[in-house]
């Protein structure tokens, strides 16, 4: 822990990574890392999409709790989708697979990767270190050790550098776009879109949501959409539809969060009104 505080948070950002050459390299390679479409119908027999979303939400919570690098979560979900595209998996192994993919992604992106023991604790010790290492090697084998997946986050800064947006608006815009990207990674439907499209849709959705704060910028969101569609060589209507789906996903997520908070508060109120001598204290803190 002492050494962790002494280590720098990471390398400084290199502006040479924002050139057209780098963007072209990303664009030319990102399609090869897309999972197979409809793998739930063609490959998986026991699992359905909502099970993947439950595990994705858990992986996201662990990444946030452990303060992982922002690319660990979308990279882990890419590994999971690519693995599920080629390997039939029991539904009882889905959390184990999520932990293994997170373990692998953290080794690629973190200066101090997550340990196997810590990940086992995050599963309430429902898996062992031996099981985690077995799935870790299995994922490597099924992905043929090709781990350099391109994620939507790798496009965000490149897009920002090309758009006529005020410099002081970029940090908050980047943060909101990264949130949209993480939200998209929890839903399997978005994993079949090219990362550049998800990044562009997330960026435009962020601009749309921050429109009041970003008043005075040279271009409005619809013009940004047109420019980004040209940059990624995508159909304009397709990008707009994707943006609408991303905004709808945010609304659904916020609504579910409000409902969960309401249920949690009602549960705590009921617990506080009961005889605490007959009710364990931790029951009052259950998050339904």
UniProtKB/TrEMBL annotation:
Domain Cyclin C-terminal: 150-280
Residue ranges that the Swiss-Prot or TrEMBL entry lists as coiled coil: none
Pfam families noted in UniProt: Cyclin_C, Cyclin_N
PROSITE patterns noted in UniProt: CYCLINS
Cross-referenced SUPFAM superfamilies: Cyclin-like (SSF47954)
Compartment annotation: Cytoplasm; Nucleus
GO biological process, one term: cell division
Cellular compartments per GO CC: cytoplasm; nucleus
Main location: cytoplasm
InterPro entries linked: Cyclin, Cyclin-like_dom, Cyclin-like_sf, Cyclin_C-dom, Cyclin_N, Cyclins_cyclin-box
Subunit structure: Interacts with the CDK1 protein kinase to form a serine/threonine kinase holoenzyme complex also known as maturation promoting factor (MPF). The cyclin subunit imparts substrate specificity to the complex.
Protein name: Cyclin D1
